[in-house]
């Protein structure tokens, strides 16, 4: 027999077959049939709204409105998508949300553009949207937080809308689009009726490349975090590229120090990035002067794992170089045994002589191997210091080698140079 809990786990992760249904007890089979009837009856006809519903616009407001609006949408939201095995299709809420913004705002405003932090365009108004979706009783429910700013960055509106739409599992984009369209259209109508915007009332002051990015993000809640380390006295930080990829704003934290960081150089191939903090420091790591690693040599790493679970306390682990090679096809990686966790990426690998000998990049995905009955322990990967040196030399980033500095206690060296990196969108 297949139990109810087992069925829903299988429904979410695998394809249910007729053979599976035949193994179910009569109550579960009846429940499944009833569930499918409800879903098909209530949601099969869900289609995208055509936007014909009319909201009342104040008499002294004329549309379409020429006020230029720059819309900021977090990259993580815009690209959000996931695969559902049970229905064999993609759910793409991010794409549907972007399309709903273009349609709903375009219905009332003639000049809507996407925020571009490199642009010198000066919009009249800035708008920040942050949606969150949930599934409940055959419907997609959306909670959309939003803020509207004038061109100088003053908050005009800070509010949220909650909407919902029936979900057709075989054409899910309609539910995401409809719930989004409802919220964005309400936003547009209320903005017009209450603030009555025009280019005179909201003059274009700041260009997009001048706008304070902090206004778009929640400083208390980064979308992700990782680890880095100080590389030289000028406060240059080295980390993994995937830690800061798609960040609108980057913060570096060490103890009481919390400072902005800007991306200077990066490589997706090597998964390495250089950040400038413009904060002079006394403690930083020096690179190993010779290239070769020794199999079995001792090492330590300090990182800031598990954002939100272990606060911002650094975590120190010890291990050894277990192999000079990594996965087939990888470039410049070696294996080490010091335990790491999510958030450890970008952490320094430090030798007993207090030398930088690598940087944490990834760990072996044990989930898939566990399904095959193989459970490896502490198979983690680091970028070899000789590749770090080549990258730094190519981009003319200053560093020192261990031969130029006396070695200190390697645990203290690792701990004193590690920083937490927060990524905001």
From TrEMBL:
Q: What is this protein called?
A: Serine protease
One GO MF term attached to the UniProt entry: serine-type endopeptidase activity
Pfam families assigned to the protein according to its UniProt record, in alphabetical order: Trypsin_2
For this protein, the record's InterPro entries field holds: Peptidase_S1_PA, Peptidase_S1_PA_chymotrypsin, TYSND1/DEG15
Please give a single GO biological process term from the UniProt record.
Answer: regulation of fatty acid beta-oxidation
Q: Which Gene3D superfamilies match?
A: Trypsin-like serine proteases
Key words, A-Z: Hydrolase, Protease
Q: Which PANTHER family did the record assign?
A: PEROXISOMAL LEADER PEPTIDE-PROCESSING PROTEASE, SERINE PROTEASE-RELATED
């Amino acid at each position: 027999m297949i139990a109810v809990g087992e069925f829903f786990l299988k429904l979410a992760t695998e394809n249910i077959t007729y053979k599976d249904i035949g193994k179910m007890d009569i109550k579960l089979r009846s429940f499944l049939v009833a569930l499918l009837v409800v879903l098909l009856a209530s949601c099969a006809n869900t289609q995208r709204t055509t936007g014909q519903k009319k909201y009342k616009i104040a008499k002294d407001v004329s549309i379409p409105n020429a006020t230029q609006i720059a819309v900021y949408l977090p990259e993580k939201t815009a690209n959000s998508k996931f695969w559902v095995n049970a229905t064999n299709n993609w759910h793409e809420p991010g794409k549907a949300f972007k399309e709903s913004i273009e349609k709903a705002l375009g219905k009332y405003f003639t000049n809507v553009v996407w925020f571009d932090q490199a642009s010198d365009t000066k919009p009249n108004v800035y708008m920040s949207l942050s949606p969150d979706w949930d599934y409940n009783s055959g419907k997609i429910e959306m909670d959309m937080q939003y803020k509207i700013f004038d061109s100088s960055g003053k908050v005009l509106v800070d509010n949220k809308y909650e909407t919902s739409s029936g979900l057709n599992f075989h054409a899910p984009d309609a539910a995401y689009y409809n719930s989004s369209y409802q919220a964005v259209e309400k936003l547009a109508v209320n903005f017009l009726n209450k603030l009555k915007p025009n280019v005179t009332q909201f003059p274009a002051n700041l260009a997009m490349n001048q706008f304070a990015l902090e206004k778009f993000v929640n400083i208390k809640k980064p979308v992700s975090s990782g680890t880095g380390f100080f590389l030289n006295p000028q406060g240059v930080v080295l980390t993994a590229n995937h830690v800061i990829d798609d960040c609108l704003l980057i913060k570096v934290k060490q103890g009481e120090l919390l400072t902005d960081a800007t991306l200077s150089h990066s490589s997706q191939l090597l998964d390495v990035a250089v950040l400038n903090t413009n904060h002079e420091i006394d403690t930083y790591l020096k690179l190993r002067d010779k290239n070769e690693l020794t199999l079995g040599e001792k090492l330590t790493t300090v990182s800031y794992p598990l954002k939100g679970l272990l606060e911002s306390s650094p975590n120190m682990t010890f291990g050894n170089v277990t192999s000079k090679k990594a996965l087939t096809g990888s470039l410049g990686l070696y294996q080490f045994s010091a335990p790491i966790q999510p958030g450890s990426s970008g952490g320094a690998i430090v030798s007993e002589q207090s030398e930088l000998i690598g940087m944490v990049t990834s760990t072996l995905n044990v989930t898939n191997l566990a399904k095959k009955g193989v459970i490896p322990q502490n198979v983690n990967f680091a970028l070899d210091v000789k590749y770090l040196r080549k990258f730094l030399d190519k981009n003319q980033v200053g560093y020192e080698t261990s031969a130029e500095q006396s070695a200190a206690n390697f645990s203290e060296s690792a701990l004193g140079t590690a920083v937490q990196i927060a990524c905001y969108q």
